[in-house]
Amino acid sequence: MEFPSKLIESAVGELAKLPGVGKKTALRLALHLLKAEADTTASLAEALAKMRFEIRYCDTCHNISDTPECGICANHLRDQSTVCVVSDIRDVIAIENTAQYQGMYHVLGGVISPIEGIGPSDLTIDSLVERITREGSEIKEVILAISPTMEGDTTAFYLSRKLRDLPELNVSSIARGIPMGGELEYADEITLGRSIVERQRSR
């Protein structure tokens, strides 16, 4: 693809690095931003820069946050006795959109994948155990809401084994309304909500 400007070529190259964005789409976006009001493009650039450099992760659940404690963890009206364990921040958003769950979360930051060199120590599993066993903890149930892929099932099995000996703790998994090999973020809200409500006890 030939470009009339090195600056356009550079912008297209950066935009094309985004998932699902090809060179033609990237060119269309770049030309749109070029034609837009200068303030519009500047606001977009500023918002992206702030997101990248100023956003942080919740000290408790590892969800994205603007403050040391995310809005969910800071909401004392939510059920403090239940923690839903997910692999990715996108899963928190997907479950919240169902409006079927009012407990807390814990974001692992991925799944166990030996092929990619990701082991249990690379995830926030120790942080989860510390939350559960901490003096004064109200946690009575852990829901494993991990996408039913091979790596997801491996992670769920590891967590079940890790947590099974903790006293007075119920470990459950979301019901298999999510198809094998499916990703939570792509599940429709009714199916995902029903999976949370009809979760199954793991031990």
TrEMBL record:
Pfam families: RecR_C (PF21175), RecR_HhH (PF21176), RecR_ZnF (PF02132), Toprim_4 (PF13662)
Gene Ontology terms for molecular function: DNA binding; zinc ion binding
Keyword DNA damage (UniProt): yes
Superkingdom to which the source organism belongs: Bacteria
Keywords of the record: DNA damage, DNA recombination, DNA repair, Metal-binding, Zinc, Zinc-finger
GO biological process: DNA recombination; DNA repair
Zinc finger (C4-type): 58-73
Classification via SMART domains: TOPRIM
Domain Toprim, chain residue ranges per copy: 81-179
UniProt family annotation: Belongs to the RecR family.
Biological function: May play a role in DNA repair. It seems to be involved in an RecBC-independent recombinational process of DNA repair. It may act with RecF and RecO.
Annotated protein name in UniProt: Recombination protein RecR
Originating organism: Hymenobacter metallilatus
